[in-house]
Amino acid sequence: MLNKAIFLDRDGVINEVKTKRVKFVNKPEQFYFLEGVKEAVKILSEAGYKLFVVTNQGGVGLGYLSHEHLQTIHDYMVGELETAGGRIYEVSCCTHKPHAGCSCRKPEPGMIMGLSERYNLDLTASYMIGDREPDIEAGRKAGCKTILIADGSSPLYQADYVFPTLLAASQFLLSQ
Ligand SMILES: [Mg+2]
Ligand SMILES: [Zn+2]
Most exposed residue of 37, 55, 92, 111, measured as fewest CB within 10 angstroms of its CB? Predict the structure, then answer.
């Protein structure tokens, strides 16, 4: 029996970035959950999806952020989401330098494919949710359905669906 999954991009889907108070997330104090995200993760977890975070963190490879600090941030993120009633099965990170040519950095589908093998996932019944083109491309290459989180002014990158927030996307998925 294969599992259906949701792959979540991190920055701009789960937490704030490129706002006045957050330029980069280098410690848990800089990690601000976007509105409705905790509720959305709970909804999706209860709907029977296995949830994963797949995130490019090239700052590690570039030396701006250590693996230990990144782990601290993700422990905080996962802990908060679990306290709110959701469950994240694994946080998969590409920590290679942006131009290293690795097979995991989105838009490559390596992180999704790795998770698919480890967790017996049905990728055709799974969704990649992100706020940028590399997320949508990685999801498409992996054979997933794709959801773009964007406001009305963003290009759509040929995503299958577009919603303004993760909460709106989760309510849609619940109705599927
Ligand atoms: Mg993002
Ligand atoms: Zn990589």
Answer: 92
Distance of CA 136 to the CA centre of its chain: 11
Q: Per residue in 55-71, pLDDT tens?
A: 999 999 999 999 999 99
Under the banding of pLDDT at 50, 70 and 90, the label for residue 1 is confident
Q: Which ligand has the shortest distance to the CA of 106?
A: 2
Which residue in 168, 140, 138 sits closest to 152, CA to CA?
168
Q: Which residue range forms the structural domain that includes residue 70?
A: 5-174
Distance, CA of 56 to CA of 158 (rounded, Å): 21
Amino acid of residue 104: C
Q: What is the pLDDT of residue 108?
A: 98
Q: Are 114 and 9 in contact (CB under 8 A)?
A: no
What percentage of the chain has pLDDT greater than the value 70? Answer: 100
Q: Residue 131's domain is classified under what CATH number?
A: 3.40.50.1000
Q: What is the DSSP letter of 16?
A: -
For residue 65, the SS3 value is: coil
Domain count, the chain: 1
Q: Report d(CA 75, CA 169) in Å as an integer.
A: 24
Q: Please list all protein residues whose beta carbon sits less than 5 angstroms from ligand 1, which is an ion.
A: 9, 11-12, 131
